[in-house]
Structure formats: C-alpha cells, structure tokens
Amino acid sequence: MEKIALIIEEIKNEQKKVIVEKTSSIVNEIMFLLTNIKSSNNVEEANKYFDTLQNIQNILAVTFFKDELYLGDALWKFVKDFDRADDMRTRTYLFNKIKKDEYALS
After folding, report:
1. DSSP H or E stretch at residue 69
2. What residues make up the domain containing 58?
C-alpha cells in the first residue's frame, strides 16, 4: 500500500513540474500582450489585446474551476483580475494600471 502511495506522490510531483514548465509559456504570452497594451495610445487601440487576454482568461477559468487544476498564483491572479475584461470600465481601469506600471501578475 505504501508503494502505491509513493507512486501516486511521484506522479503528482511530475504533474506539478510539467505544469510549472508549461505555465511559464502562458505567463510569457500574457506578459507580451500586457506590453502591447502598455504601448497602445488608448483603450480602443488596446482592445485587440484585451480581446485576446479575455479569451485566455476564459480558457484558464475553465481549467481552474471546471477541471479543478491549479496553475499557480500568477495565473490565478490573472483569472481574477481579468474576469470582467469584457466590460469597458474594467478595461479602462486595467489599461490605466498597465500604463502606469501598477499592474503585475505577482
């Protein structure tokens, strides 16, 4: 019985390692989009980046809530912060935070 528990624990540890490796790619993509937003002159110009971030947020939210797979603190923060990024007031708020370097994933 202990051997099985040990094997399960090893599997969990391997999954965590793979998740960390893969989530860094997602975080990098999000950071790239945030940089593009920061380079935008106004919210309207940044909307295409917000749309992409909204799509990423939807996928991650399903992963967290439906699939019950935790992907780390940075992506959890992103899911919460961009939950209403489809709302123009929220986009304006986030745009201003990003422009002022007041938004971070960590």
Report:
1. none
2. 2-99
